[in-house]
Amino acid sequence: MATAPTAPSRKIANRERLIFALDVPDLKGAKELVTRLSDSVAFYKIGLELATSRHYFELLDWLLARDKKVFADLKLYDIPATVSAAVRQLTRSGASFLTVNGDRAVAEAAGSAKGEQLKVLAVTVLTSVAPDDLRAMGIGLSLEELVLLRARQAVAAGCDGVIASGLEAAPLRAALGADALIVTPGIRPADAKAKDDQRRVVTPSLAFRSGADHIVVGRPIRDAADPYLAATAIQEEIAGVFG
User: Fold this and answer.
1) Residue of 29, 39, 69, 143 with fewest CB within 10 Å of its CB?
2) Cα dist. 217→85, 198, 220, 234 in Å?
3) Dihedral of the CA atoms 180, 73, 61, 235 (nearest 10)?
């Protein structure tokens, strides 16, 4: 049975390797979708769309009460003191993952403020960014070089891992070792017809075989004719990788 190239030292339940991006505009729609997905999803990402509603933490508590894990994808970016204070607040929320964005000082502030349960993940380069975008921003590094640089700095500063495309997962695993978490968005099943605004995408199997610990999937499940069946198919693909 094929496995990821460098087995992490921590144990991750197969069903928790799939994180569903709960990208809907309101609490009612979120609850309906979670109910529809039932036992096919155990881990949910709630991000900026719901953060701009009035119900973000109500939804977070509702998910935790149903034995779901929560990834607070807030991409915190501010001066270190503000980031540190925000991370301390999120530590008390019961979320398992939190994203931060920015330089080494931001990563250090987040890493030093988190509690035992909360894992802080640094965003490397968004999966909507392509090499020509870096050149337009005046960045002379290649995408892989920039991802590796930011990842090494974040982990050295105290972050638990990174958010990165599956295209960079293998070099990241080699550079960061077995203990750093690698969470991969931009996932599209092999039969997906569209990439949408995601430009650096991989299949679930390729992401895991390249060294990812978790994948984040949104539209291929949310917009499927049957979201439950779509999520179940990805869970079966995960089981095929890890056994």
Assistant:
1) 39
2) 29, 12, 7, 9
3) -60
Kindly report the pTM of this predicted structure: 0.91
What rounded mean pLDDT belongs to the chain? 91
The length of the chain is 243
Helix (H, G, I), strand (E, B), or coil: what is residue 208? helix
Give the residue extent of every domain in the chain: 14-242
Three-class SS string for 174-197? HHHCCCCEEEECCECCCCCCCCCC
Give the pLDDT confidence of 30-82 residue by residue, as tens digits: 999 999 999 999 999 999 999 999 999 999 999 999 999 999 999 999 999 99
Q: Which CATH architecture has domain 14-242?
A: Alpha-Beta Barrel (3.20)
Give the active site residues. Answer: 75
83-95 pLDDT tens trace: 999 999 999 999 9
**DSSP E strands, 87-141:** 97-100, 119-123
